Amino acid sequence: MKKFTFIIVSLFLLAQLSFAQEETPKNWTSNGTVGLNFSQSYLSNWAAGGDNALNWQGILNYSINYAKNKEKWENGIAFKLGYSHLGDAKPIKTDDQIELNSLYGYKASEKLFYSLAFSFKSQFAEGFDYKNDSTTPISKFLAPGYITLGIGMEWVPSKIFSLNFSPLTGRITIVNDQDLADAGAFGVDKATYDATTGAKLTDGKTSRFEFGSKVSAKLNVDIAPNVNFSSKLELFSDYLNNPQNIDIDWQNLITMKVNSWLNANISANMIYDDNINITDKDGKVGPRLQFKEVLSLGLSYNFK
Fold first, then answer.
1. 76-94 burial string, b = 16+ CB within 10 Å, else e?
2. What whole-number distance in Å separates Cα of residue 215 and Cα of residue 210?
3. Helix/strand/coil (H, E, C) string of 92-135?
4. SS3 for 289?
5. Cis omega before residue 144 (within 30°)?
6. Cα dihedral angle (104, 110, 112, 113), rounded to 10 degrees?
7. Contact 10, 31 (CB under 8 A)
8. What is the CATH number of the domain that holds 182?
9. Count of helices and strands (H, E) across the chain
């Protein structure tokens, strides 16, 4: 409940700060959405069985962009945090995202820009494999964290689509937890141990550097009145280690507006990262296609 209160207060304060800003200076544009999605059920003497449940998800998306002459600078943040509370059991995390993106572009031609792209990704709270253990975290804030910086070209053929190719891209994976680093989580070098005594000889690395190329494609289109579809596909290849294994991050969102403050959302996120090992139901360990889908109905407010 403390985390629930914290996220609500944080979203409210961020919205108030946005409302309090002076008129956006010339050459700058900004917009954002703050929302709370939830579902709830309450049972009392219910013969068919069941338990009380509360599911909630806080969302904040905000972008601020600059454009003048041949230059542009696009910045965006995406925050999500969601939990499911079932009876008196420990809350289960259902969604968690911190993502910051920034792209500087200088026009080379009508539809092409030289680009410098930066991104940061992580999460707010600890994550668990609830099927096996709800006390030992398998992820935390900055475990992992991803920092990416790339130089390349952006192609913008229309207002609804853009494609950025960065053939010179550095990516740092951060695992700011020694237990996870010792286990080699998220692709960092794991700790070494004495074969006889089991004593740790060297700590696991808390970071991993990759150098390669990145492609980012974005689509944002109204597919029907009050229905918007947005999609972002990111591909990354590490020149230094198995460049044929392409990391994939594909985010999709359909937003259906009921009115100015009520909407329904369907989001789907697919990730494949060759450096992340996942244990399947048969006990086999290796990279796996990760998939997450969220259907939500809730309150939202758009602001500038």
1. bbbbbbbbbbeeeeebebb
2. 15
3. EEEEEEEEEEEEEEEECCCCEEEEEEEEEEECCCCECECCCECC
4. coil
5. yes
6. -20
7. no
8. 2.40.230
9. 2, 16
Question: Looking at residue 19, what is its pLDDT?
Answer: 46
- Count of the separate structural domains present in the chain: 1
pTM of the full structure: 0.88
Q: Which domain holds residue 182?
A: 2-303
Residues contacting 29, CB < 8 A, separation 6+? 64, 65, 67
Bridge partner list, 158: 161
Cα separation, 112 vs 160, whole angstroms: 15
Q: Convert the pLDDT of each residue in 128-155 to its tens digit.
A: 988 888 889 999 999 999 999 999 999 9
Query: What token pair was written down for 51?
Result: 């338990």
3 pLDDT higher than 90: no
For 122, the token pair is 């992580």
The pLDDT tens digits of the residues spanning 10-38 come to 544 455 444 444 445 689 999 999 999 98
DSSP 12: H
Q: Among residues 144, 154, 218, which one has the least CA distance to residue 187?
A: 144
CA 113 – CA 240 distance, rounded (Å): 27
